[in-house]
Amino acid sequence: MAKEYYEVLGVSESASQEEIKKAYRKKAKKFHPDSNSEHADEEKFKEINKAYQVLSDEEKRKKYDMFGKQGVNNIGGGSAGFSDFQDLFNTFFGGGGRRQKRGQHLKIEVEITLEDAYRGVEKTFEVNRRKKCGECDGTGAENGNTKKCSNCNGRGRVETIKRTLFGRQRTVTKCGECGGSGQIPEEKCGNCDGRGVKNVKEKLSFNIPKGVVNGQKLRLRGKGHEIKDGRSGDLYIFVRIKDHPELQRKEKDLFTTIKLGIGDAVLGAEAEVPTPVSKAKIKIPKGTQPGQVLRLKGKGMPQSRGSGYGDLYVKVDIDIPEEFDEKDRETFEKFRKKPERSKTFFETVKDLIN
């Protein structure tokens, strides 16, 4: 039979009760909708609690192992509503009363340049989101006047119990009349038609910190969808950094290549190299070899956490002339030597770092 509940908790079918409890604590805390975790997910949280309710009870676990979900969905008390799952979570992690409901999260993607990532930048954009109606303050009622929902008697939940072959099945669901608030409008608000929220296009601004990396996720708390009787969801911003024409990035370090004439490489020189904010000068030592890598300390990217900057690594490319006279040929003949295997670019960088 299906062993989905074991997979949900990430344990084997032979797991002990202590292993099951430990796995539940870890996953429930990670996916709890009110946690600060980036993995917060109400549906996933519900699945985890369903799995734990079955596998933590030896009798239910035996029936599940024999018959799968069909064998446990209707066992005396059977399936539970979300409030029961919240009670189970509070048993482990504390917390008083029922969980406050929350609006859906929003996600957007923002593209910036490497220069923006170096300095930090403020971005402004428009987003479509649901906000509480200003006329009724989110109650959905004209003039804010509400009354107790008769369908659930103000509890916000509706309980049904029915008998099955496996015993009594108890189901608790959110009231469809009041949406779980326990209150309904005496008269619907004309501005939002009793929904308590309206779709709006809103202009938002936020700061992208310096040192941000490609694909990083930022969060604006409370800027997701609002709901009439709970707190707002969050807005998640995914940062994409455009490719730079001259600089490549690896974490906090930058890499580039410059071309030198053979005379500058042999005799030494001073050259300019690109950085995200300006040009920087670098000293080319005498006898610089093709493919040699030089380092400019502190000319890389700022660290997103803490202080300090990475380094800029400069690979030297020697521009060999295609045409030269006899005198040049005689000079170059003096410097002939047997070629040796040269180090790769990254081997050279590793030597510099070490």
Please characterize this protein's 3D structure.
With 354 residues, the protein is of the alpha+beta class. Helices cover 24% and strands 28% of the residues. The strands form six sheets. It has a four-stranded mixed beta sheet. A hairpin with a 2-residue loop joins strand 4 and strand 5 (167-174). Helix 2 runs antiparallel to helix 3. The protein is elongated. 22% of the residues are buried. Residues 75-97 have low confidence and may be disordered.
What would a concise description of this structure say?
The chain is an alpha+beta fold and 354 residues long. 24% of the residues lie in helices and 28% in strands.
Helix content: 10-25%
Radius of gyration: 32 Å
What is the mean predicted local confidence, pLDDT?
A: 82
**Secondary-structure-derived class:** alpha+beta
Uncertain runs with pLDDT below 50, 5 residues or more? 75-97
What shape does the CA trace take? elongated
Helices, by number, come to 9
For the termini, the CA-CA separation is 56 Å
Strand order of the largest sheet: 10-11-15-14
In sequence order, what are the helices and strands, one letter per element? Answer: HHHHHEHEEEEEEEEEEHEEEEHH
Count of beta strands: 15
Largest sheet composition: 4 strands, mixed
Please report which band the strand proportion falls in: under 5%, 5-15%, 15-25%, 25-35%, 35-45% or over 45%: 25-35%
List keywords for this structure.
three-stranded mixed beta sheet, single chain, four-stranded mixed beta sheet, alpha+beta, 354 residues, 9 helices
